[in-house]
Amino acid sequence: MKFKGGYNVQIKGKPSNKTTRLPDPDLLYLPLFSKRFTFSAFCIHDGDKVVQGQILAEDPDNHSVPLLAPRAGTAKIDPETNHIVLENIQASQEAPKVEFELPDAAKGMGETGEKRCRLLKLGVWQFFSDAFSGDLPDPFGSPQAVIVSAAHLEPFLTSFEALLSEGTAGFEKGLEQLHSLSQAQKFYVILPKIKSNITNKVRDSAKKISGITLIEVPNKYPFDNAKLLARLLQLNPDKGSVWTTTTEGVLAVESALTSSKPAISRVISIAGPAVKSPEHIECIIGYPIDKIVEPYLETPLARIINGGVLTGDTVSGDQKGLDIECAGLTLVPEQAKREILAFAHLGFTKHAYSNTFLSLLRPPFKERYTTGVRGEHRPCICCTFCEEVCPSSLMPHLLHKYTEKNRLAEAERFGLNLCVQCGLCSTVCTSKIEIKQILLEGQEKLLQEI
Ligand code: SF4
Ligand code: SF4
């Protein structure tokens, strides 16, 4: 496999692999939304007493992926804030009894259908995506391939070293279970080419299971990107879905199939330049975000990003609790004042892809990044830095110009649909152009035209 482009942005605030378990709060705020899901079909009534692991609501447009009760308690449906609030919460040690009727699609699949249904009902299916579309794949479909991207290379998503710090036995078993139930002809485990105790163990686990191909990629962002990997592996989107998941998904498969444990808690990173002592935390879904963030905040004003620095979305003021898809909270100091004549600053403390700052004279360091854009937005100056870092071998400077002028046929001809939304072009752009966002809007317009 040939890798082109890619770039590791050097930012302060990498989380340690230590994981702190947060005590249960008094109230849980379960968002009825996440990046891909909208839980609009309620399975309970307002004021119902619910048990731990019970299905509270489902997303009818996404194979009925469920929103589970992370604890027993009293559920209050609050349509105005778009949350279910869980009061009087109580933890239970016992795994809930999962009773479900097999859907027609699963009936002819025997034990495999039952296992896949269990993954769906226990909230594990949410960890899966289709590599090409990013959508939730059909849990009862026949994937042409499975890609387990074991590591996250974007700063600062949950690290696989933290997830596997207590051992890799669960990961190995989960891989075997997933390999057998997917019945896919091709099964890949992707690992960055680095040497550490944990990567060595993951490598050994993957090599032990027959039918699994281990692929080692450069330790550079975004070579863990499933869409990019599917293309580099020459998988064809017309030949069916490519399931993709991460280490967390594999561990959740193992917990659900071995011990019937629902996926109601998460290990997430809490990291970024506005965090004192960045680390990992284990907490339940619906945990109040302000209560998570407050003890870690180092600066009075910070933007909370749901996900990594390059691809995450700002947490809106309407979101009160941790949603089911969060893979990390990144806190970046909010720059309240505008930087005047930023281009004239000497930049001993700043990085730029162009290496024009005097920081070039310093030994390697990690930057204290903020939300400021460093000066004005300017027209494209054709520096081609975006082209150099693009892992999809695109010309983002050309694509964004075609897309902005609504010349979508030309943009499509130059590969608009091959953009994997890694965000590197926007990050290195000398003129602060929001290329990734412009290309995403172009891709959406193209989809509407089909
Ligand atoms: S054009 Fe797309 S794939 Fe290329 S760097 Fe930009 S966001 Fe990444
Ligand atoms: S990095 Fe920005 S300024 Fe440079 S060529 Fe690309 S779009 Fe133009």
Structure, described:
The chain is of the alpha/beta class. Among the domains are: 107-261, NADH-ubiquinone oxidoreductase 51kDa subunit (Rossmann fold), CATH 3.40.50; 376-449, no CATH class. The protein has 13 helices and 18 strands. The strands form four sheets. It has a six-stranded mixed beta sheet with strand order 1-15-14-18-16-17, with no helix packed on it. A hairpin with a 5-residue loop joins strand 5 (55-59) and strand 6 (65-68). It starts with 18 loop residues before the first strand and ends with a helix.
List the keywords:
five-stranded mixed β-sheet; 450 residues; alpha/beta; six-stranded mixed β-sheet; globular; Rossmann fold; binds iron/sulfur cluster; 24% helix; 13 helices
Provide a short characterization of the protein structure:
Helices cover 24% and strands 19% of the residues.
List the helices and strands and how they pair.
Layout: E1 19-21, E2 28-31, E3 41-42, E4 49-50, E5 55-59, E6 65-68, E7 72-78, E8 83-90, H1 104-107, H2 111-121, E9 129-130, E10 145-149, H3 160-163, H4 169-182, E11 186-192, H5 197-208, E12 212-217, H6 226-232, E13 242-246, H7 247-259, E14 265-271, E15 279-284, H8 289-293, E16 302-306, E17 313-314, E18 329-333, H9 385-389, H10 396-404, H11 408-413, H12 424-428, H13 435-449
Parallel strand pairs: 1-15, 10-11, 10-13, 11-12, 14-18
Antiparallel strand pairs: 2-8, 3-5, 4-7, 5-6, 7-8, 9-13, 14-15, 16-17, 16-18
The structure holds iron/sulfur cluster (2 copies).
